Structures are given as C-alpha cells and as structure tokens.
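>> Question from a student workshop board

For tomorrow's exercise we were told to take the sequence and the ligand below, predict the bound structure, and bring the output to class. My setup keeps failing. Could a helper post the expected result so I can at least see what it should look like? The ligand is 1-deoxynojirimycin.
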Amino acid sequence: MKKSGSARDPLWYKDAVIYEIHVKAFFDANNDGIGDFPGLLQKLDYLEALGVTCLWLLPFFPSPLRDDGYDISDYLSIHPSYGTMEDFKTFLNAAHGRGMQVMVELVVNHTSDQHPWFQAARTAAPGSKERDFYVWSDTDRKYEGARIIFTDTEKSNWTWDPIAKAYYWHRFFSHQPDLNYDNPAVLEEVLKIMRYWLDMGVDGLRLDAIPYLVEREGTNCENLPDTHVVLKNIRAAMDENYEGRMILAEANQWPSDVRPYFGDGDECHLAFHFPLMPRMFMALRLEDRQPIVDIMRHTPEIPENCQWGLFLRNHDELTLEMVNEEERDYMYLAYSSDPRMRINVGIRRRLAPLMENNSRRIELLNSLLLSFPGTPIIYYGDEIGMGDNIHLGDRNGVRTPMQWSGDRNAGFSRAAPEMLYSPVISDPVYGYGAVNVESQDGEASSPLNWMRNMVALRKLFRVFGRGVMEFLDPGNRKILAYLRRGEGETVLCVANLSRFAQPVELNLQAYQGMRPVEMLGYVEFPVIGSQPYSLSLGPYGFFWFELQKAREQIEAQ
Ligand code: NOJ
Ligand code: CA
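>> Workshop helper replied:
Here is what the output should look like for this input. Compare the format with yours to find the bug.
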C-alpha cells in the first residue's frame, strides 16, 4: 500500500500558502544563540494564526555551513545546532496536527566536500564506483559552454583536488562538488534519501538546482534531456510508494525552459516562476503593467496537476538572471543604490527595504503575489516588514533572526548577543524596536494583521489556486487588471502601479448585469452595465472584487 501524506486532497499544493523558514533564524528555545526545532515548535501558534498552510524548511542537515546548509555532509541527520531527530519528528507531527504540510530540501546537484562520498571519491581509484560519484577531469577545459553562477566568488567550474590529482566539477561554490548522474549508484543513493524523509512523513521536497544535474560537451550543461530522465525517475519512485506528496523544482530559467520540468505531469508538481519575480518589481518602478503582462503571455500552459510557485523574496538575492541586459541595468539602478546591495547577478535585499518601507507598495506587491495563478510563498519576516543588513557577507543580510518583540535579541533568544548566529537588525527604521511581532499583533492595522487578513481571504476563494487568469486591456497602462475564473467563482483584480491616483475604464461587457463586491470589506459596487466600467484607484491602490449575480438577476430566475 502507498503511504499517504498528511493532506487529504492530493492536489493540496495548489491551494497552499507556503511559508519559507530558516530553523536557525526563527526561535531559539535552548538559548545558545541559534534557532532550533523546539523553538519552531513553540511558534506554531504564530504560523497557524498567520494562516500559512505549508512550511518550507531551508536545509537543516549536518553541514560545514559554508553555503548556509546547502553544502550537506549528511543527508539523513539533523544538524546538532538545530536539535535532534526526535525534535524534528515532534515538530513534524505537531505541524501535521494543525493541518499544516511540511516541505524539506532535497539537494540533489551537489554535496559538501566534507560528505563521506567525496572523501571516499578523492582517494578511490580513478574509474571506481566511489570515484565516479563526482565529475572528474584531467583538464579544466571541459564543458566550457557552462556559465559561472556564483560570479562573485568563483572563477571556474573546475577545482583541482591535490588528493585525487584531478579537477572536480562544481556549478556553485568550489566546496560543493557536483554529483555524477552518469553513475547509476548516485541516483540510487538520492532515492534512498528521498524515501527516508517521505517515510518519516514530510509532504514536499524542494529539489535544489535541478537544471545542472547532467553535463554534456558542446552544450551549456543546463536543462539537458538526460537531466529530465533523472527527474522522471525521482518522480516515478515517489509515485510508486507515496501519495499526496509534492516536488517543487528550483530551476532559475526562462518559462519555456522551465516548462519541461513539469513533464506530462510526471516530473515536478511545482516550479518557481523566476522570470515573473523581477518583473513585478520592474512594473512597479516603471509604473507600467507591460513587464508583467508580457512575461505571463510568454508563460506556457502547464499540466492540470501542476502549479507555479510564486514569490517576491526568498533567502537568496533578488536574482536578475532571467531579465535582459537593459532590464538588469534598470533594476540595479532602481533597487540597489549602494553597490553593497548587489551580489552575483542580483540584489541582496528584503521586501520592505526594496519598497522603501512604503506600506502601500508592499501591500500592492503582496496583493499580486496572493492573486496571481500559482501557489504563493512568503519569506519569513516579510509579513512584519523586516529589514536587511547589507554589511553581513554573502546573502546573510536577509537571513537575520526573526523579530518577535522589542526585548533583548528581538525576543529571538536569551543568549548573550555575541552568541547569536547573526546580529539582529537594530537600525531605527527596521530594527526590532520598531518592527516586531508583539507590537504588531494587537494593532489592527499593522502589516502582520493585514497579511493575516489577506491570507485568510485568499483561502476562502479556491479560484486563486485553481482558476485561469485573463488580462483586461484598459487604455491606462498604469493599471493592471485581470480576471481569475474557475471553481464557480469569478474574481476581478485591479491594481494601480502608480504613485498617483489613476482612473480606469474596464471592458466588462461579458459580465453585464453582475455586481462587483469588494472582497476586503464586502462592499457592493455598482452593477456592471453596457458601458465601460469606471473605477478610480488611489496611489498603489488595488481592488479584489468577486463578481456576483446581482439581486435583480437572482430575483428574475
Ligand atoms: C540554491 C539555493 O537557493 C542557494 O541558497 C544555494 O546557494 C544554491 N542553491 C547552491 O547550493
Ligand atoms: Ca538553540
């Protein structure tokens, strides 16, 4: 018999609201300065009240932590700083008990160089099974068509290993050797790891960095057919023994290249929509809907059982790999005035500072996140408007402790401040004195309560997760207007991307006789007539309307 996940509906991921968390950053229960599973367990009330339905945990496995845990040295244990396996299981069961799903990371492209597989490979004879867990070469001139991803730190995708006396291949940091999928033993091991976590009951797996699994001479070594063969094998192994689980693809690629990661509904269930993300920021800054409409028009249809994963910010930089050069220059200019805000091909900042702490702009972008076709993913701390610290190295500036209160260490830990894994944000605008859960909790109009309301509202309308999207084309390009249709519901969303008030006339002919009811306040607007439907929106304002049958229509029936 197949082992079920914790959700009843096999398509649960379509209606989910995902919340991305660093265990280390959330809450420190044993006061050693590092967040842990017992701490996360204590904060389930908070997460339940926020309304999120699926918790995505960043890597929590043993690791030298040179890539914040994406450099794994043991896939089957818990990093001792975060607790024990028992702590993890207790947390998992408690999350399930509250009807929340849990997604963990399956880092399949590379390991840490400290992983026993790599240690064995370096000393094993060339050509042996152990050696062949990784990709070796006598020269560093192979696969020259592959770009470098971590442009700020790496000069080559090859690094010389003095013990093996050969070069090994790595698409990310040089301490992260890539696994060799031409060796069938590698996939076998990965499947064992997958089964281990699925047997324990996790509901979802985020497959990290999947475009790079296989390398072939004469190509750019991304999205290759053999990579898809590996992924289909992973999915088949999942489907064989497990039900109600989900795989989320991390493939930072153009929509047409991401499309194959869904296969015929037999590869990944979800994939991040990377190209959409920067275009939401661009449209807002340009006060023009075109970048959004354009990328959505170039977004192919996906199989019925699949879904886009939508996000504004995450634990990485705001990546600008999926825009053209001109757009990249514009984004750097618009959103990274200080060069220290930049890293690799992107911008290392959180949502609130990117929006210059303008609550209307933050709310507008969140309204798009929560109403576009796909599953929204909220990055921890963005719901209270946390800031970042560009003086911390790498992407650590967006990974600081969650701000629970105005107490010492932001209420995150009772350790001495010097012991914290990272300093808390303490500047006057975004610091924990000004921005924290405790003070926002009781304040009806706080960012936190705004987010709670919006998440709750989204969950009331299945059309958001399941319906189709149709853009309207009003003359005023500062207005983005779209319909979401399906599940017996029709929702009209209208967003003003401008900093000034804007009028708009919408062609709603097809809905003549229906009444738009504004969903946040349940306010009835005038019935749609034969003329264009006029609306005025305040600066960065947005409306969500449910189109309902007007009373007159119901009475006539
Ligand atoms: C993608 C992860 O999101 C990122 O944080 C990490 O650095 C790379 N994979 C490499 O592991
Ligand atoms: Ca701790």
